Amino acid sequence: MMENKKTYTRRSFIQSSVLAGGGLMLSFSWFSEAKAVEKGLSSNLTGEWNQLNGYIQITTDNIVKIMCPNPEFGQNVMTSLPMIAAEELDVDWKDVKVEMASHDNVKFGNQFTGGSNSMRAYWKPLRNAGASARQMLIEAAAQAWNVPAAEITTKAGILSHSSGKVAKYGEMAAKAATIAVPKEVKLKSPKDFSIVRNSKKNTEGVKIVTGKPLFGMDYSMEGMQIAMVQHPPAFGMKLKSFDASAALKMPGIKDVFSIKIFEEGSDRGAFETRTFNELVAIVGKSTWEVMNARKVLKVDWEVAPERKEFMMVRGNKVEEITPSGLESTDLHFEKMREWAKKSPKVLRKDGDPEAAFKNAAVVIERTYNAPFLAHNCMEPINFFAHVETDKALFVGPLQAPNFAEATLAARFGLPTDKIEILMTRMGGGFGRRAYHHYMVEAGLISQKAKTPIKLIYSREDDMTYGIYRPMYTATYRAALDQNKNLIGFHVTGGGIPENPIHANRFPAGAVDNYLADGWEIPSNITIGAFRAPRSNFNAAAEQSFLDEVAEAMGKDPIQLRLDLLKKAKERPVGSNNDYDPGRYIGVLELLKEKSGWGRSENAGKKRGVAAYFCHASYAGHVVDMVLRDGQPYVEKVISAVDCGVVVNPDAATNMVQGAVVDGIGQSFYGALTHKNGVAEQNNFHNYRMIRANEAPQKIEVHFVQNDIDPTGLGEPPFPPVFGAVANALFQTTGQRYYNQPFVSDQGQPKS
Amino acid sequence: MAKYSLKINGKTQQVDVDPLTPILWVLRDHLNLQGTKYGCGIAQCGACTIHLNGMAVRSCQLPVSSIGRQEITTIEGLSENATHLVQEAWLEHDVAQCGYCQSGQIMTAVALLKNNPNPSDEDIEATISGNICRCGTYLRIKEAIKTAAKK
Lengths: 751, 151
Fold this sequence. Notes:
The structure holds 2 protein chains of 2 kinds.
Chain A: E1 2-5, H1 10-21, H2 28-38, E2 49-53, E3 56-59, E4 64-68, H3 77-89, E5 96-100, H4 105-108, H5 118-145, E6 153-155, E7 158-160, E8 166-168, H6 169-176, E9 184-187, H7 205-209, E10 225-230, E11 237-243, H8 245-248, E12 253-260, E13 278-284, H9 287-295, E14 298-303, E15 307-313, E16 316-322, H10 329-341, E17 345-350, H11 353-358, E18 362-370, E19 382-387, E20 392-396, H12 401-412, E21 419-423, H13 437-449, E22 453-456, H14 459-464, E23 471-480, E24 486-496, E25 513-520, H15 533-553, H16 557-570, H17 581-595, E26 606-614, E27 617-628, E28 631-642, H18 649-669, E29 674-675, E30 678-679, E31 698-703, H19 719-733
Parallel strand pairs in A: 4-5, 10-22, 20-21, 24-25, 28-31
Antiparallel strand pairs in A: 1-9, 2-3, 3-4, 6-7, 7-8, 10-13, 11-14, 12-13, 15-16, 17-25, 18-23, 19-20, 19-22, 23-24, 26-27, 27-28, 29-30
Chain B: E1 2-8, E2 11-17, H1 23-30, E3 49-52, E4 55-58, E5 71-73, H2 85-92, H3 102-115, H4 121-128, H5 138-150
Parallel strand pairs in B: 1-5
Antiparallel strand pairs in B: 1-2, 3-4, 3-5
Helix pairs in contact in B: 2-5
């Protein structure tokens, strides 16, 4: 058993609930359930719920409800997070009901889904919640039976005492709810886990396969209208004027007006990315009618001037300038080549890299490029809003409710306790739904039309609105001495509008003379998070560069990485190295073993390997590629991942498999290009997505077994796919691939 | 506007809509059958797949006026509680990640197995390649279809 200091108490919890909820929370277990039922979001109320803490409620007839704090977008938190609380609570998983919590940062923290953070952020709070509730149930039984608490044991939701006394949790739940939350609780030792580390099926599986209305798109309310927005046809343009007369005559149309998402001159808050600030909104009875009316809307657009905004960056007010102009992809490439010649900002320097390159016997230099990528979540952007004078309700898919609430409170002038945010299941997110401009849009439309509305983006609206994975470039240089030792390493990265460099990641720390620098080109094309945006570019570039370095050094590519990591472990260069070389080595060793790397029976295979670290986890893949009808095809992938304790193994495997398929698809086909500010791809007929016949036949996933607290999993297996694919392409075609997307880049190496 | 009498999941339902309205939006906006999803609106992604007399079709491209007496089946019509063999196989393999595309995937799989009870790997791939899964669950979709075929 591990002692664990608690980070919250029932007392502070109730106090803060009162602060946030205006004193309505005293019997909130019943109250919040009744309120949810009223809205049709919850059902199957059996018995009376006794709330033991923010996350756990138990009925007298032994049903345990565990709240999932973080929004679900396919990473399976609605199963894996409750598993953690259930483990420490010591209940039978079949008695557990899971419910998505609404937004409440007092009870549930910031509820942020992104940055592979759900498991990392909630592992301890949920263990504490489960263990505290169990302790309170034990205490309740001790009082009822008049025996010492220490003599009571629990198993699968049953309390027992050596005297023969036995009770189900439910029988003690009402009493337990009156007991003070223990200040300290004992947590299970990982060897005693019986739920965690045992695969559990998706708690929403039945709802998904029967088509239940789980998603934002499916939400409806009596009297709700449908709304769509028309955004400028090109980045760098803005609304000039519009004529709604024809649209207003179309059947079912209620209103047409323009909205300003953020007030002019207002500071930019977190995740308030401003792509287009003024839109034309159409409100009507049904989706099809609104879509049709939008076609006859007459709108004039004009080129937008340069824009200046202030935003807070790590506590400092920073001015940000969005340039004027209509941008094109070919000019972007030209500009990147120009900027690469200027002197960049030094991000990290160890030793004397200039001397190392001057004295080198061999210098290898390669440049890598990647385009903007659109998220293309299967569920297009949408949100329900009902904004009234004194309160507002928002329902839909979003990743960052806490940040959204701050924006909404400021924009609508409402206190946060008058803004209710309900999080629906998301049809994908990948970072896109952290940017909540669409909630503000929905709210403004509801406010102006004086009706509840559901804002829906068409696929075209969704794909051409921006907030893309940035466009990146990087040039890598390696200096080898006469004996082919790596004596210097230099990476310079640039991007539109951010550079991709993680200066303190591998191979920083493993090379004596190291330099990382970068530069950035401002743009009016907006960018955002995208399943580890910088990492997925870097892993492609760095990991295929290391492949070439290994070749030049006459070393096996896995061995080169192991040698460098061994050095970083035993004699690290510099400080602030982000990664743990030991865990990195562990993943590579596991990958080597499971793939039979270098073994004679695999000699004929065209294989590529890559490993990468991000979001506190380590992942690597060996990709086996063939030519099928003259086209490269990834037939099989072997993956190794170290993400600490694997909470729900089958679901974790599913996520790694998905990351592999996604990575092959993005690196082969993904690209969003521009011509005079217009996105050249706007739907799936011209934005190629990977399909079933292009996915591998087999993806074998192996996890490093350890007791480290869980680290990230949504992002970490994704970036190394790009590098492993690039390296397998070289083995398969004899050609190095430097420019993504690889399949449309049939040209010659450019470096 | 025009009145239509539609046979959906064994029940006859009346709607009064523009004849060009795709059946997708009739189901979702007028009949409260939200299981059929909007993904692209141009028959490229398969999220809106339904059955018309047992054949898989893209409901986003099918005007309500073209339905006539043909029988529509949606995901809601397969079973109330996931007891259809294909739904069971989906649960057995825990296929879904975000889940948004899965109704369309399942409807495609059900139609495939109806016409071809023992599909080869190639048959399966060729059929489901019309349905995009952004989360990349294709391997499990294939496995689930094979499991359902065996039963």
